[in-house]
Amino acid sequence: MTTTLAPLTEPWSPAEFEARLRAVGEGRYHDRHTFNIRMHQGDLTQAEVRRWITNRFHYQRHIPVKDALITAKLDSPRLRRMWLRRIEDHDGRSEGEGGIERWLRLGEAAGLDRRTLLSGEAVLPGVRLAVEGYVNFCRLRSPLEAVAASLTELSAPDLMRTRIEAFERHYRWIAPEGLAYFRTRVDQGRRDSGEALELVRQWARTRTDQEKAVAALSFKCDVLWSLLDAVQHADGQGQDGSRESM
Amino acid sequence: MTTTLAPLTEPWSPAEFEARLRAVGEGRYHDRHTFNIRMHQGDLTQAEVRRWITNRFHYQRHIPVKDALITAKLDSPRLRRMWLRRIEDHDGRSEGEGGIERWLRLGEAAGLDRRTLLSGEAVLPGVRLAVEGYVNFCRLRSPLEAVAASLTELSAPDLMRTRIEAFERHYRWIAPEGLAYFRTRVDQGRRDSGEALELVRQWARTRTDQEKAVAALSFKCDVLWSLLDAVQHADGQGQDGSRESM
Questions:
Q1: How many CB atoms lie within 10 A of CB A85?
Q2: Cα dihedral value A189, A192, A195, A199, nearest 10
Q3: DSSP string across B185-223
Q4: Using CB atoms, which residue from B80, B91, B95 is nearest to A87?
Q5: Angle at B171 between CA B167 and CA B172, to 5 degrees
Q6: Please, which pLDDT band fits residue A99 given cuts at 50, 70 and 90?
Q7: Domain definitions of chain B by residue range
């Protein structure tokens, strides 16, 4: 009698692999975080909205840095061009354009000073650690893991749409032009996540690599979750509390 | 009696600092390497020209990688845009464009197969080490040092002009279209070195930093010199010799 022994861990089928990646987003994405739920229900005070914008800006301004680190891991002009476009999306093709500039304008629409945002002085310790952790993950891990971590973009377009509605309804003190960042990210996020998912599917051929990709996406969800934890729990704690009373 | 004690090492004046940087290029740039002198005098065999093109391609294809690592060290959209343009110069804005493609066409004009060039299989050990050393320098050192290392571009435009003349005169078996890479680099090199020199002058305010910048440029000259050493001394040594007999 001959039996064919399957390897101990066979790769998941492409469909199952994708389903497992999507399940991470459904279970662990920061749309489920209390602070995000409160934001979208209109329950945040003006000080809380400003605190979130200020701290999330620290994340936003590091996106091109992590994307440059990913670019350096890619071994063909075609793949690097794909990632360069992401850097351009955030840095702009020229001064006054791009996602970082749009985020600064969101801050201004919410009554925050551009220079204070750029100074980074109001950024919370937990937010600094979360961003540092994400940048170093992209610096030190494999191209597969660094790209898989970007797959939170699979869930981002839905979040952006909900957020635009929530801000238009609940936070009318922020001028609608301030929401341009969220509007731009709906299409950019859809395109970026489609490209990244295709790369991750091509690159992760073994079960080990598939599991590494799932773990990378899970780590990235922790980064975003941890950022909101810090923003949520900052109330009345020293530095941040005193800034809010200004 | 009061005396004003100067710090042990005062910064060089901007003019002296620039002169010291230029002196490194004048003394240590690879235009003085025997292999380059022989190339420009028309003394290389066809096999030697091909060996140089093949091995230098390994350097060329890593330029966008080191530039992406430098981009990740820059903290403003303005500076990153400056460096992104360098990556685009080599990778192209779309397929079939850019410096890497132009180098592949130089190889084809010299009778080399594009697939062999892309495979990297004929790259000499010393060339691999030189390129790895340069990429890691840009990965691990300060932005000042990584940018200062790029200042070999100060000497590159002159070298490119001499090279175009030398190839047109001595290596007529290479079709003139093959020299497009060298032609493009005259202007790109002038612009790149001007920008980089300005950054290095702004950033290196202490004597210690000025000396680090000079040392970085000196290291980069060693990289280029070492690459030519490997190409020069490969004659008849095992792998490479056997490939040349093909």
A1: 14
A2: -110
A3: HHHHHHHHHHHHHHHHHHH--SHHHHHHHHHHHHHHHHH
A4: B80
A5: 105
A6: very high
A7: 14-233
Q: Which CATH architecture has domain B14-233?
A: Up-down Bundle (1.20)
- Which residues of chain A are within 8 Å of residue B77 when distances are taken between CB atoms? 64, 90-92, 95, 98, 100-101
Residue type at B171 in one-letter notation:
Y
- Measured CA to CA in angstroms, residue B194 lies from B22, B75, B91, B189 at distances of 12, 20, 21, 8
One DSSP character per residue, A45-73 reads: -HHHHHHHHHHHHHHHTTHHHHHHHHHTT
CATH code for the structural domain at A14-232: 1.20.910.10
Q: If 0-12 CB within 10 Å is exposed, 13-18 middle and 19+ buried, where does residue A103 land? A: buried
The length of chain B is 246
Closest chain A CA to residue B138? A72
Share of chain A above pLDDT 70, in %: 93
Side chain identity at A198, as an amino acid letter? E
- Residue B4 pLDDT: 62
Q: What residues contact residue A60 under an 8 Å CB cut-off, 6+ apart?
A: A90, A99, A100, A103
- When the pLDDT of each residue in chain B is averaged and rounded to a whole number, the result is 93
**Are A181 and A117 within 8 A, CB to CB?**
no
